[in-house]
Amino acid sequence: MASIAICPGSFDPITYGHLDIISRASRVFDVVYVSILNNKNKQPLFSVDERVELIEEVTKHIPNVKVDSFDGLLIHYAKSIGANSIIRGLRAVSDFEYEMQLTSMNKFLNEDIETFYIMTNNQYSFLSSSIVKEVAQYHGKIAELVPPQVEKALRLKFPIE
Ligand code: ADP
Fold first, then answer.
1. 150 lies in a domain?
2. In a domain, 65, yes or no
3. How far is ligand 1, taken at its centre, from the CA of residue 159, in Å?
4. Which residues are catalytic?
5. Which residue puts its alpha carbon closest to atom 26 of ligand 1?
6. Which residue out of 88, 93, 98, 129 has the highest number of ligand 1 atoms within 8 Å of its CB and is therefore the one to mutate?
7. Does residue 117 have a pLDDT over 80?
8. 85: which of 5, 11, 12, 100 fits an S-S bond (Cβ 3.0–4.6 Å)?
9. What confidence score (pLDDT) does residue 40 get?
């Protein structure tokens, strides 16, 4: 049976930190779904379609990665695509409490689905989509933080007048 894992998240937009987790997961699992949660409570900068397109472009060199989006509960979505593993990245202690809550709830909802954590590469431990958007908004340098396609998309969202 093929091992299918999901890397769920907002990916608004995808950064080198995400990409590091995705590529490391792709070496362990047969298929890795990068799945965008279409969260109705958040106001994203990039639409789901824009995020799918960016993730597809920056992961096209990894053959066992698929890009998708979903609404509702992650465990229902996991079941619908036949995935039994969830992958999340851990950056710092500050991520831990929220992640523990999330994992415990998912375990309570479906105990057959395991969550695995991949520790961030030290180089990216300060990196988040929110901080990248904040820097991009004020035209700071982001080239080392996101792939070139994402940098271009951010520059288009925040043009220099
Ligand atoms: P969410 O809103 O679900 O946290 P994100 O897009 O912010 O969505 O993150 C998706 C996943 O990627 C999470 O598991 C998060 O911990 C992980 N992640 C985000 N940034 C990094 C990073 N710099 N290094 C490692 N993992 C990261």
1. no
2. yes
3. 26
4. 18, 42, 91, 129
5. 89
6. 88
7. yes
8. 5
9. 84
pLDDT at position 16 over 90:
yes
Q: Is the CB of 51 under 6 A from ligand 1?
A: no
Mean pLDDT, the chain, integer: 96
The enclosing domain of 11 has a CATH number of 3.40.50.620
Question: pLDDT tens digits for 31-62?
Answer: 999 999 998 888 999 999 999 999 999 999 99
**DSSP per-residue string spanning 88-132:** EEE-SHHHHHHHHHHHHHHHHH-TT-EEEEEEPPGGGTT--HHHH
Domain with 69 in it: 4-125
Flag whether 118 is in a domain.
Answer: yes
How far is it, in rounded angstroms, from Cα 97 to Cα 101? 6
Cβ–ligand 1 distance for 88 under 6 Å, the answer yes
**Predicted confidence band at 160 (pLDDT cuts at 50, 70, 90)?**
confident
70 in contact with ligand 1, CB cutoff 6 A: no
Residue entry with tokens 């298929």: 31
Total number of domains in the chain: 1
| CA 138 from centre of chain | 24
Q: Is residue 142 part of a domain?
A: no
CA torsion, ordered 70, 6, 125, 24, to nearest 10 deg: -140
- Using the mean position of ligand 1's atoms as its centre, give its distance from the Cα of residue 6 in Å: 13
